[in-house]
Design a protein that fits this description.
This is ELMO domain-containing protein 1 isoform X4. With 277 residues, the protein is mainly α. The chain contains 14 helices and no strands.
Length: 277
């Protein structure tokens, strides 16, 4: 009975809030002479805050045109904006900035959706040692990270030197597919000096010495934790693939929207995702 009452209250609250929100929007439009999209664009600075409010407004609209505008093809954005202006009875000559603001927001919203699809496609594509392009990228990764050490053979224990688990890296890409390789190579090519430093640190960890003074300040439980609080090295490539997994999950969950809507003035691209990695 308690469960039923709780469910009943939640349903009532939902419909009450839904109706109340519609009423508030109607009153705001009558008082300001502007629709919700206009109020957001004119009262919110460009960036994640504006784009996310626009996205929420479009998705929550009862109009099919507005609901589907967040998933149109990039080439159809201009026409979609014209249709929205017609639907809302907004004169583009009197409100020229609204069209510009909506276009920027829709480019980001649609771009994020397309970026997620592109990243997913790369993640699902397995590494193929018979594919010359895949092999070329892998060998390029070695040359970037080990410029003074020629690879003796394609199948070699040397791969462990840059953090792969065995003598053939293709087995380590199973979880993230080509996406893992794309990100590792992007890092090694674009920030070579930092990548080499990170690789060096992974092979030669720096230990933190615990002094007698430190010992006197630790409880027994803290000391047990501190005993394992020293760097023990890590596998560069494997950690890179795991970070790719983290970045992928943040992207798919929508957690990266705020970041991308702030850094990408238009549609976020694969390069933005790789920079985040």
């Amino acid at each position: 009975m308690k469960h039923f009452l709780r469910m009943f209250v939640q349903v009532c609250l939902y419909f009450y809030c839904k109706c109340l929100w519609r009423c508030l929007k109607f009153v705001a439009r009558k008082l300001t002479g502007r629709c919700e999209l206009q109020r957001i664009c004119y009262n919110t600075k460009p960036g994640a805050s504006r784009t996310m409010k626009i996205e929420s407004s479009l998705r929550g609209s009862k109009s099919k045109l507005l609901q589907t505008s967040v998933s149109v093809h990039p080439d159809a954005i201009e026409k979609t904006i014209d249709d929205i202006m017609d639907l809302k009875k907004i004169n583009p000559d009197i409100n020229p900035q609204l069209g510009v603001s909506l276009q920027a927001c829709l480019l980001q919203i649609v771009g994020y959706r397309n970026l997620t699809a592109e990243v997913e496609k790369l993640r699902r594509e397995p590494y193929d040692s018979e594919n010359p392009q895949h092999e070329e990228m892998l060998l390029k990764l070695w040359k970037c990270l080990k410029p003074d050490s020629p690879l003796e053979a394609r199948i070699s224990k040397q791969w462990c030197e840059i953090g792969f688990q065995g003598d053939d890296p293709k087995t380590d890409f199973r979880g993230m597919g080509l996406l893992g390789l794309y990100n590792l190579l992007y890092f090694a090519e674009r920030d070579t000096a930092i990548a080499l430093q990170v690789l060096s640190d992974s092979l030669q960890p720096k230990y933190r010495e615990v002094t007698k003074k430190d010992l006197s300040q630790f409880s027994k439980a803290e000391w047990e934790r501190k005993k394992f609080d020293k760097a023990i090295g890590y596998s560069f490539a494997i950690v890179g693939i795991n970070i790719t997994d983290l970045a992928y999950n943040l992207l798919v969950s929508g957690a990266l929207k705020t970041h991308f809507y702030n850094v990408a003035p238009e549609a976020p691209t694969l390069a933005h995702f790789q920079q985040t990695f």
